[in-house]
Design a protein that fits this description.
Length: 135
């Protein structure tokens, strides 16, 4: 199945090999020329990530329900407490410490999404549908 890979400041591309997706994800940096990316299935469902390396925020939109989810961990990997603001090429977003993922987590989720497999068990999903619809 081909999916649409979109990366900041790059031409959108139809991909059918996960290696191209992984390469794009590993190149992301919140302070660099590519700081966000998304992968969209033919039905319109997508994953989107902002940031890069050890400071990623990952969200998913499910179709046809149009529910919007943000990935989080049961135990935060970062030492800070309280909300933080991630600045990236698309703007900024507020995140909780348990919502900060490392690129390894992001690659694993994108791979599962790409292959229509279950997501890694350590990744939990917080329903953001009400918050996203208000903005």
């Amino acid at each position: 199945m081909k999916m649409l890979l979109e990366v900041e400041k790059k031409k959108p591309a139809q991909v059918h090999e996960f290696s191209k997706v992984e390469k794009a994800l590993r190149a992301l940096k919140s302070y660099g020329p590519q700081s966000y990316a998304s992968l969209t299935k033919p039905d319109g469902s997508y994953l989107q990530v902002a940031g890069g390396r050890v400071n990623c925020v990952l969200e998913m939109r499910e179709k046809p329900s149009d529910r919007h989810w943000r990935a989080h961990l049961e135990v935060a990997k970062v030492p800070f407490k309280g909300q933080q603001t991630l600045m990236f090429g698309g703007g900024h977003m507020t995140m909780e410490p348990d919502e900060v993922l490392f690129v390894e987590d992001v690659v694993a989720v994108f791979k599962a999404f790409f292959e229509s497999e279950p997501f890694p068990k350590e990744i939990k999903w917080r329903d953001m549908s009400q918050i996203v619809r208000k903005t």
